[in-house]
Amino acid sequence: MVRRARELLQRPHWPAGSTDSQAAQRLANDLKNLREFNLLTKLSKRVIRVQPNATTVRRLHAQALIETGQATAAIAVAQKALEGLPESDEEWSELAGLIGRAYKQIAIDTRDPHCIESREALAHALDAYRKPYERNPNNTWHAINLVAVFTFAKRSGVTVPTAFDTTQPAPSNQSRTDRMKHIKLNHATEL
């Protein structure tokens, strides 16, 4: 697959059409699974030029950018892909989660949880992971990352917005569903 991707990228006008683009999308996913992120970045850029609305390829491109140390660029790619994408689209949650992942990486890369860049990145990561989880509590990887970022922030002494403080009791005016979400997150932070 790696050799095939390199050969295809040598062609100046590839992908030329929708059939090539569909094959490239499959190849992009294979490259992600092989963790060939540098090659995936090149391939996904090519496909996006031909099919700018290829949301799955944009998601793969954002992931490759994160994995190659380009978190800020990944945020821009994922945000662009989210423009006009309905929340009901399965890629919406994945893209929102990748934005959280990119901000989490920025916070980690600063190596100082107290600097302004890290605090802002943590707040953005919390917000990015929260949205898909609130939309669908079955988005467990978003919930896990939400708890992880929250716990990292709290342990580092970083003040997090009250909305994310799952150690406090849920307000009594919340609906039963909202209280259950709060309880689930509260229990997870105790683990």
What is the share of helical residues?
Answer: over 70%
- Can you count the beta strands? 0
| Average pLDDT level | 83
Largest β sheet strand count, sense and barrel closure: none
Class derived from helix and strand content: mainly alpha
> Number of DSSP helices?
9
N→C terminal distance: 41 Å
What global shape is seen?
elongated
- Rg to the nearest angstrom? 19 Å
Report the order of strands and helices.
Answer: HHHHHHHHH
Unreliable segments (pLDDT under 50, ≥5 consecutive)? 183-191
Percent of residues in β-strands = under 5%
Write the layout of secondary structure elements.
Layout: H1 2-10, H2 18-33, H3 37-50, H4 55-67, H5 71-82, H6 90-110, H7 116-135, H8 140-155, H9 176-190
Explain how this protein is built:
This protein is mostly helical. It is built from nine helices and no strands.
In short:
With 191 residues, this protein is mainly alpha-helical.
